[in-house]
Write a structure and sequence with these properties.
heterodimer, A: 5 helices, 73% helix, B: 211 residues, 8 helices, elongated
């Protein structure tokens, strides 16, 4: 199997890839920019609207996670015959369910369980 | 290995298991995928901690809010340390691929120094917070904060121990296949911690201050 793989994948990255110097530098520069922008946005407070600032910061973080995963962790459809990507997608789905689900449930629980102002007045 | 089975089937001795060396042309094979799946389980631990923080992050119990206690310049410095350690770790991997043991060690040591700086800054931050009365006991928000950020810091510390072990191992045995496999796992571990930190500085620090 290994000989077969070696013949089919003569790419420098092989089956699982360790990246090239160029790949690491590109990844580093991208992530440096993607880190500097959100810190600048929040620390200088250029945008008056907090909602827009928050959305931009989250969007930049998501882009940076993709950059790290591709350039540093070398996850791509070819690595390990696609299994690292499959495991990653599975994990992303579970992570999303855990985080979004918890926030959703607890937000509604808080809204429904907290004493309302009307209840307080009657007490 | 006993004599009896080989005598019985001399032409084709049965193979009950294969050692890694047989199966792999290049230092990894199943190990890398297995380690990746371990890392994904680690990501799930962090997901539960992020979810907990998300739920509790506004429960101040009359204590300080994020805006009052977080120092973004310090966090930016911390983030820079981890980001730089990421590329030096990459350089160590490239040196390893080129078979340069000494260069690999140097890059690894630099990675370890930046990692140690990260942990040092974080401990300073924790000490300052606790000194100001913002300890994990103060509110649910602070409990969740210390648990999430502390767990990440603990992972980085374990990574530092791993780096020291690899420095010794490469020093003693050079870049043998086993050490290459270990170094590649270490590299994946280190980069994943960087990915988790993106989540921490975004959702805990930046959004905490914006809120």
């Amino acid at each position: 199997m290994s000989a077969h793989q070696a013949q089919n994948a003569p790419a420098p990255d092989g089956g699982h890839g360790h990246g090239s110097r160029r790949g690491y530098v590109i990844g580093f520069l991208l992530s440096a920019v993607l880190t500097a922008i959100p810190f600048w946005l929040v620390m200088s407070g250029v945008l008056a609207d907090r909602q827009i600032t928050a959305i931009l910061v989250i969007a930049l973080a998501l882009v940076q996670i993709v950059v790290h995963t591709y350039f540093f962790l070398h996850v791509n459809p070819r690595a390990e015959g696609g299994w690292t990507l499959m495991a990653l997608i599975f994990t992303v789905v579970i992570v999303t369910i855990v985080i979004a689900g918890s926030l959703w449930i607890m937000y509604h629980l808080n809204n429904n369980m907290m004493p309302m102002s009307g209840d307080m007045a009657g007490m | 290995m006993t004599e009896a089975p080989t005598a019985a089937a001399d032409a084709a001795p049965p193979i009950f298991y294969q050692t890694e060396a047989d199966e792999n042309d290049h230092s990894s094979g199943g190990t890398m995928l297995g380690f990746w799946i371990y890392l994904m389980s680690d990501a799930l631990i962090f997901a539960t901690l992020f979810a907990t923080y998300g739920v509790l992050s506004t429960s101040y119990a009359g204590g300080p809010a994020p805006r009052q206690i977080f120092e973004l310049p310090l966090v930016a410095l911390n983030t820079a340390m981890l980001l730089i350690s990421s590329i030096t770790c990459g350089m160590a991997m490239i040196a390893m691929e080129e078979g340069k043991a000494r260069t690999t060690q140097i890059w690894l040591a630099i990675t370890g120094l930046f990692g140690a700086a990260f942990v040092g800054i974080e401990l300073y931050e924790f000490a300052t917070l606790i000194g100001e009365g913002a300890s994990p006991l103060r509110s649910a928000f602070l409990s969740a904060f210390f648990t999430l950020v502390g767990t990440h810091g603990l992972h980085v510390t374990v990574g530092l121990v791993w780096i020291v072990v690899m420095l010794v191992q490469v020093g003693q045995r050079g870049l043998i296949e086993d050490n290459k496999r270990r170094l590649m796992c270490l590299s994946m571990f280190w980069h994943l911690l960087d990915v988790v930190w993106i989540g921490v500085f975004t959702f805990v620090y930046l959004l905490g201050v914006v809120r």
